[in-house]
Amino acid sequence: MKHRQAVYKLSKFLVYILGRQPDEFGLLPDEHGYVSIKDLMKALGEEPGWRHVRLAQIREAIYSTGSPPVEIESNRIRAVDRSLLFFPEVPDCFPKLLFYPVRRRAYPVFLEKGLPAATSGNRIILSNDMVMAQRLGRRIDQSPVILTVNSENAREKGATVWRFGRLLFLSNCLPLGSFSGPPLPKKQPGPKQVDIPKSPAVPKTPGGYLVDLTMNSTASDQSKKKSRQRKNEWKRNRTRINRTKAKGWPDE
Q: Which CATH architecture has domain 2-79?
C-alpha cells in the first residue's frame, strides 16, 4: 500500500513540474512541452524529499496507471495534460535587475564579448531571483559566476526579453554594457628571477692539475740537463783518474 501511494505521489508531482509550474524548478519546456530527462533529474535532485528518485521510478509512475500522466520520447519527457502550461510572453513591465549564471572559466570571455544572439534560436534563461540563478548556476558549475543584468539597458541595446512564469525570464542575447559582474582575479606575479653566481670551472680531472702546453718546455729541459751534467762532473773526473793509474799511465 505504501509503495502504491509513493508511486501515485510521484506521478502527481511530475504533473505539477511539467504541466503547471516548470519555472519554479528552473525548467524551460520546448515548444512541444518537452524538457530533457537529464534536466528533470537535476531538478528533482535539488528538492528535499525527492532526491532519491531515479528514472526507473519515473517509468513505473508512467506505466503503472491506465492513463499515464506524463510521457517519454527518447531522452525527453512532458506532461500529457498541458492545458495549464503557460508560454513565454513579453510583459508590460520588467524587473530592473535580472541574474544570469555563467561558468567561471567562460566568465572572462563574457566580459570581453558579451553573449551574442544564438543562431540556433535557443534562449538565455535568466531569473529575477538570486537564489534561483544560483540554483541554475550549480547545474553547470560548482562555483558559477552570477551576472547582474540591467533589463532596460539590454533592451535598448537590441535584446528581446520575455517572461516565463513567475521566476524565469528569457532573452535572445546579452550585449556588452547590459550586465556587470565581479572583477576578475588579479594575475599572481611570477617568481622573481634570482641571479645565481657562476661557480668556478671544475677541472676535468678532479684532484689533479692540467699542464700548460703553451710554455717552452724544451728550453727548461735543456737547462735541467746541463745542471745535472755540472753536478756530476767531479765524479766522472775521479773515475777517469783512477782508470789511468790502474793502467800505469804517468800523471800529466
A: Orthogonal Bundle (1.10)
Q: How many residues would you count in the chain?
A: 252
Whether the CB-CB separation of 127 and 171 falls below 8 Å is answered with no
**What are the residue boundaries of the structural domains of the chain, listed by start?**
2-79, 97-180
- Cα separation, 143 vs 107, in Å, equals 12
pLDDT single digits (tens) 122-144: 789 999 999 999 999 999 999 99
How does pLDDT run across 150-200, given as a tens digit for each residue?
999 999 999 999 999 999 999 999 999 999 999 887 776 666 666 676 666
DSSP SS3 for 192: coil
CA dihedral 113, 116, 120, 126 (to 10 degrees): 100
The C-alpha angle with vertex 68 and arms to 66 and 73, in degrees rounded to 5, equals 135
- Distance in angstroms (rounded) separating the CA atoms of residues 56 and 62: 10
Tell me the fold of 97-180.
ADP-ribosylation fold (3.20.170)
E strand spans, the chain:
35-36, 70-73, 76-79, 97-102, 124-127, 145-150, 161-164, 168-171, 179-180
